[in-house]
Structures are given as structure tokens and as C-alpha cells.
Amino acid sequence: MTLARIWAGAALGVIWPWWGGISGAVAESLPEFGQCIATEIAYFERDHGVMPETGDVPAFDGGNFDLVYYCGTIGIMRCDEVPEKLACQRRLRIEQDIMRARVLSALPEPSSVAGRGGTVSDALYPQVWALAHGHSAGPDCAGSPEVMEVWCETREANGRLNLAIQAWQVARYLRAAKPAVLAGWAGPPPPLRPRLRPERGQ
């Protein structure tokens, strides 16, 4: 977990319940949604990798499943500091839904990965694939004041994208999905922080 993510998580715990917002300077220092996703996906690729080509299949350790929530949250935090807050959140909602559609189009069918990685391919992947393709039972955000309805819709879009990327992470581990950049749904990341090396006291 990067220092930025630790800071954002702590800030959310203190600030978000009161909807108090953050300073414009801090908001501007946070990455835009697309850049944030590109960076977090790159960390996933670096730190979790893919299933070995040969030998025993290790258990999938869950990957990095909080990255979409993190990026969506700082996206809303950025929107809270611009004059057209609701319009900004609506654009963020659309951006997340477009990205979700692109991720879904890059996911392999469960039948095509059967047998690749034991329970990961035969039990876990079909479940996350089904969740990623699920549909809402109704207008969950309707009936709230506009500011809360827009926020709710943006968070709902974030949840939908989160499920899609979770499915991609499992498919990627199984060597059944392309890297996000090659698949076209994430951009190239900025330079990443070096990996911590505890054996050297870092």
C-alpha cells in the first residue's frame, strides 16, 4: 500500500463522514481517476503477477481489491473542490461506467479458463465473472436530495467497476486476460515507487 493510499484512507475516516471536503491544494495534488487506476493496476501487476507457467498452482491471494474504491473516493474528493461539483461527479460516474464496459469486454468466458488453476479457475472465476456482469435490481439512489443522489450514483458506478476489475484480476492471474494497458481500458502508469525490500531494512 502506497503512502498516498494510507493518507487518503486516514483522511476519509476523519473528513468524509462530515462531508467537510478538503483544501483545494490537497485535492489538486491527488491523481485524476484514470491516472489513479493506471497506477494501482500497475502495482497489482508488479506485486501480484500471474500464475506460474509450470509446477504447482499457488493459491490466489486476493490481489488488490481496494484499488477501485480508493480511486473513486479521491475522484469524488477532487470533484468536491470544483465549482460544478455535481457535474463533475456525473462525469466521473460516466467515466467509471465506460471503463467497466471495456473491462467486461476483455474478460474471458468462464468455460475458457476451466482447468487452468484448480479452484481459482473452476470455482472462484465463474463467481466473480457473474458478479461483474450483474445488474441492479432497481434505481437504488432514487428519492434522495439531488446532491446525495448524484453521490450515490457515482458510488454505485464505482461498485460496478470494482466487481469488473476484481474479475479481471482473477483472469489476469490465470493468464487468461491481457494486461489492462494492452486491453485498452487503462492508460500507461507514471513511474512507480520502488518495491520495499525488508531484507535490506527498507
Report on this structure.
The protein is mainly alpha-helical and 202 residues long. Helices cover 59% and strands 0% of the residues. The chain is built from nine helices and no strands. The protein has helices spanning 3-15, 24-29, 33-48, 67-79, 85-105, 110-113, 119-132, 146-173, 180-183. Mean pLDDT is 82; it is low at 1-20.
Can you count the beta strands? 0
Helices, by number, come to 9
Largest β-sheet summary: none
Q: Supply Rg.
A: 18 Å
The overall average pLDDT, rounded, is 82
Question: Stretches where pLDDT falls below 50 for ≥5 residues?
Answer: 1-20
Outline, from the CA principal axes? globular
- Spatial gap, N to C terminus: 14 Å
Strand-pairing-aware structural class:
mainly alpha
Helical content stands at 55-70%
Beta-strand level of the residues, as a percent range?
under 5%
H/E element sequence: HHHHHHHHH
Q: What is the gist of this entry?
A:
The protein has nine helices and no strands. It is mainly α and 202 residues long.
Keywords for this entry:
mainly alpha, 202 residues, globular, 0% strand, single chain
List the helices and strands and how they pair.
Elements lengths: L2 H13 L8 H6 L3 H16 L18 H13 L5 H21 L4 H4 L5 H14 L13 H28 L6 H4 L19
